[in-house]
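G., before I forget:
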Amino acid sequence: MARKQLLLGDEALALGALHAGLSGVYAYPGTPSTEITEFIQSYPLTAERKVHCAWSVNEKTAMEEALGMSFAGKRTLVCMKHVGMNVCADPFMGSATTGANGGLVVAACDDPSMHSSQNEQDSRFWGTFALVPVFEPSSQQEAYEMAREAFDYSEKRDIPVLMRLTTRLSHSRAIVTSVDDAEARTPNEMHFPRNEVQWCTLPVNARKRYSQLTKDYALFEEDAVRSRFNRLEDGPDKSLGIIACGIAYNYLQENYPDGCPYPVLKISQYPYPKELILKLASQCKRILVLEEGQPLLEERLKGILPHGHEICGRLDGSLPRTGELSPDPVRKALGLPAREGCAASEVPAPRPPALCQGCGHRDLFTALNAVMKKDYPQGRAFSDIGCYTLGWLPPFESFTTCVEMGASVTMAQGSAYSGVWPAVAVIGDSTFTHSGMTGLLDAVNEKADILVCISDNLTTGMTGGQDSAGTGRLEAICEGLGVDPAHIRTVVPLPANYPEMERIIKEEIEYHGVSVIISRRECLQTLKRHVKK
Amino acid sequence: MKRDIILAGVGGQGILSIATVIGSAALEQGLSLKQAEVHGMSQRGGDVQSHLRLSDSVIHSDLIPLGGADIIISMEPMEALRYLPFLSKDGWIITNTVPLKNIPNYPDMKEIEDALAKVKNVVAIDAEAAARAVMSPRSANMVLLGASAAVLEILEPDKLRDGIRRIFARKGDAIVEANIKAFDAGFGFSKK
């Protein structure tokens, strides 16, 4: 029986995976992907079927764990934000070689406009890079349906499938029609791969497999030509042909409520369907490419199309080069008159996000500033990814850098070697276990002169309070990595403790080796929830 | 018929609860709906908005085009002004009048009031006082929803009341009734 419910794009994908007979999701939280895993964690079918749903330490471990599950014949989903793909690039590229025994779907949620991210990288590039098919749903309903089909496809073609969502689909709700839970496919029984040899990527095996993969890729392209998610829609006016990828298709339609006058090629499955592109190009000399993210297809069209075509999109200025699409820039690219609303007001002041009042990160920054700005103005602090990155803004301005997960510890080390002193790293507890621990081992081996402040709020805060992998064990982890126990200090970040915190920070700066200060107090957001319970 | 709504406020003010109630009512009434939300870092005390689109036919874009919004519902007066280019010239602003001043350069209230006065259709209500008056101080968002119900048209007020009942049911009858009272207070204000 069909069931209708209001779901985020993330949730629709999650439900599709569950209904496809999922045996496990592996993920590290990251906006805008977090809700996929959270939906699975709280969905009744998950408990009934004992679907794996605990958070992984990072995207690399998640991808590898999922690969193990796929090896064992079961259907598995890996979820992350776009930059998580960088973290799991090694096993992801490897998974194209191993192939998939149980269906293996990797969901990457991109964040064009950087609502909550450090860059706009477009995950579709991983598809062509790894020779893996990419599914890019254009709606919540497609997210559900494509997720279900992605697992079948993965098993049929012995290849992982990359599902690419963007913020606007991940975090937008619509009514999704699904099957009832009772009709969900039964999870696979454990079984070993038919071609077990390709699961060991020794050159002797990998060469053979890579050659096969390049042939399979042509097959994936044929599949994309026939896919029901890709289609060429005719239009009477051939002065323009439009290629609309993923949710860009909706922005196009929004501008033509009575139907688009031009031929339109909707693309939601890659490798891009060359045959359909050529068919469109045979009718239209001018092609407008609407794609969310980077101009991947637009750049390639020049190599696909015969000479004499005009290609418009993000590269020729028809659309903005950066930022997410919406109905209005698409409208401009179509040459339609701009819509007008009320006049913009100059009155509203910017209201940037800020650390919560009373948050422990605030107290750590206050104490750190008191020491650094007064006694060590020549020093630098290096920070990391999390709520506490907001400490770069006034009134704190406590550090200089933030690059990616874990870089605080390692950049402090490299700069210390180059003569920066004091070199202080500020990193959250979840980011530390994600990617800071390995760097700390480097620092210990080098006897680097750095201070690492772990701002431990006992959770993965910025994404809404998911479990943090090292909770309760940070001292033991640091000691295990070889930090001298005398220089692993713990403080409680509260205004009343500023004198003690400042003294300890100063002592550990003056110690010329690796010191760790763990500044520990629960996140106020999770505390509120715990109190309510 | 369609109704495009921008919900505005500051992270933590409960604009998503307004969206949830409207969504539940729309689903029950068989309308199409799309609702783009803001999650992640922006929720930490920054400005937040949600695009909520209702229609009796298909909705394409998750985002409302410029000049396309019929209503801006705002939990905060300055935030009501931030999205004016999205508001149709005949559109409505339904806003709370109580400022949330968590930035050092918050403009003068007089400037905000003047800017609001330039908009054709505005309902400005002290939603927090109205919520306190019905002994439901945490339901300012439902006061605003009630105030919007008068111009929402596409959804019957009773459908919204049913939505409140469904959404708050697991919190108990007392909470449901408090939120209904807050809704009615806002609805009554708007009707005047």
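The mean pLDDT of chain B is 94. Chain B is about 40% helix and 25% strand.

More on Monday.
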